[in-house]
Amino acid sequence: MVSxxxxxxxxxLPLTTFERVRELLGQMAQRFQADTGVNFSxxxxxxxxxxxxxxxxxxxxxxxxxxxxxxxxxxxxxSKRFSAWLFGDRAWExxxxxxxxxxxxxxxxxxxxxxPNAQFLSxxxxxxxxxxxxxxxxxxxxxxxxxxARQTLQAASKIPQSNDPTLQSEFTLSLLEIxxxxxxxxxxxxxxxxxxxxxxxxxxxLSQQIEQERxxxxxxxxxxxxxxxxxxxxxxxxxxxxxxQADRLIVYEFHCDTVEERHNSKIASxxxxxxxxxxxxxxxxxxxxxxxxxxxxxxxxxYGRITYxxxxxxSIPSVLYLAEEGYCFIKVPKCRExxxxxxxxxxxxxxxAYIFSPCLLDLMRNVxxxxxxxxxxxxxxxxxxxxxxxxxxxxxxxxxxxKNFLRQIAEHLAIAIYQxxxxxxxxxxxxxxxxxxIERTQExxxxxxxxxxxxxxxxxxxxxxxxxxxxxxxxxxxLSATLLRWSFGQLSQKQRQYLQTIHDNGEHLLELxxxxxxxxxxxxxxxxxxxxxxxLSLVAQYSLQIVREKALQRGVELAINLRISPSQxxxxxxxxxxxxxxxxxxxxxxxxxxxxxxxxxxVWLEGTQAVFQVEDTGIGISQEQLPLIFQKFQQxxxxxxxxxxxxGLGLALTKQLVELHRGRIEVDSRVGEGSxxxxxxPLPPSPPSPNDPRIPIMTDLPQGRIxxxxxxxxxxxxxxxxxxxxxxxxxxxxxxxxxxxxIEILQPFAALVEINLSGLNGYEVIRQLRNSxxxxxxxxxxxxxTEIPANxxxxxxxxxxxxxxxxxxxxxxxxxxxxxxxxx
Length: 824
Description:
- The chain is of the alpha+beta class.
- The protein has 21 helices and 24 strands.
- The radius of gyration is 54 Å and the shape is elongated.
- α16 packs antiparallel against α17 (650-660).
- The strands form six sheets. A five-stranded antiparallel beta sheet has the order 1-5-4-3-2. A five-stranded antiparallel beta sheet has the order 8-6-12-11-10. It has a five-stranded mixed beta sheet with strand order 14-16-17-19-18, covered by helices on one side.
């Protein structure tokens, strides 16, 4: 450590006095050499001409200096004719036993101040060459990463010698004059303003703190109220610049990417860590063109650019969108890491701070930077950017409270940036999700169109197959049966066998085609039951009769067990479909029952349900295969050479026919013992007969007609049967488009209108009926499936007299019709 004991001056001085002495040294340096910059050509000529070097503490502002190594402030003038070293540290109280900064070798000056809150320094001044050379050596060790700076300091360390007596005397007189002026000013302040001198600094400090708090609260409120990052940053940089009375304030944003991205964008960066900024192609044309040392890029580099800016006036050049390049940056080890941990860079004068980096010094001059203060913006422990204050035309001494205030602003901006990043991510995810929904919806729409197209194609194919296959099969079966029964000429046994084979295979093929067509019709929802009054015993016997021949061929015995009395023989069902169900179950039992076995059909009633049961003594079905027997095209014997023929559609079709009757089918089977299929068919609701006790008996038949506009045949038949049985004259009209003219001709007293008509909407029909003058007294009863009709869109002109909800109840229908007649 350099010894400070050879100082000719050890005093406690106000900070202003220290700055005046340092300014005096700077003026002398300018006298010795007009250009204070240093270059290699000057070093080569240092023997022929005077060599001048003027340094301040700014020269190590970007270097991590261990505590106690250097004085907090210093000014060093080196020349052949005159050299001096001025240094100072903050003063401490007399009661303290040691220096708070750890500089035990500093003069122990007792700084007794008469003006409270004034800033004082413990100051030393020396002209000793040995002390000056020792300090130069210490500086050289601290800037060892900068070759130019180290060489310059080493060269300067050979210059100090005894000062020129004339210059020494001149400097001493100027120094005494500064001390005398400062003493007079302090005494005058104490005498003229004894109270103001004490209170005014406190008042100014409090006012400044209040203004800082106000500005911080304003920035915080704006962050809470807005997610627009550009608005927040633009407003914040302008307000902070105005508060600090700075010439320019900028936000410098870092960006990290790969070598390929950097090479494509042609924005240069160096492999080391740097601080500062440089210009790019977006900058003003008056600034230097950027250089791109692409060979120095590493695999993952960070660069940056200025994204926000606030200026005091238009005379200050804009640096907005200027980007980083590493060509003339000062290389500082772990610079970004230091910023990430909260390092603040304060440069009071770039002329002295960047004296060892001529390139960067020229750059700072070009963009009009004389002093700067930079604090980091750290988000989630990652360095996002820098908040930088520029003084453009004169040096500036940055106060500690200004550094702290700028740090607080940077912390609040970090919160705003992080909040904006989260919001941007949320918006991106929202847009991505919306796009996926749109794409998925389009996919579903395309799939639906494809399914509809496939369904239409399937329907067209089945219709074509129904005609093209059934017609020739009818001829094949019919002609072969004719030849077998009425042969024209004598047939040999071989010919008769051939004809019988043709006939049997034709019938088998027709049966398969019918099953496929029937199944496709049911899946398309086009199968309609024709409910009628049937005889259970006749249906059972008929079904047994049509499979009897097939059973004889396989040597299977058929049996029937009817457990119904003659009074219970009548049942409501679709006779054709019931026969088809029984036929499929019986043929299935016969097919899987070996010769000598038995197939039994049983029929009985359970309450309002008819029960059909087919039991066989065949091969049976394993428990593992039971869930598969009602699936389409499912054969339990899946080997290539199957013993039992068929497509696997019989039982699947049977199950759907049973469910179409709202019934159910169950199976119980054991391997080697046989199977039992049981079908339950419930009694369907039937239209009431005239003798139905639910229909009120009317002694007087009503007069007039009722028109029913309904496109559903089953609903229309039910309403017509109820009203006809009650004595009304009912006219059924299917289409609403032709109903208006027919109603005007028929002149009914009431009209029942289905709301969900195909083609013309029911409300539109009602509106036209209301607007017709020929039927102004017509009563209208709307039939709807909704609890609360949504006719608000049609206006009052489409309002019916009453509503009838589905399903239609006979008593409710007759009651509403009677009310219409009464009101009429």
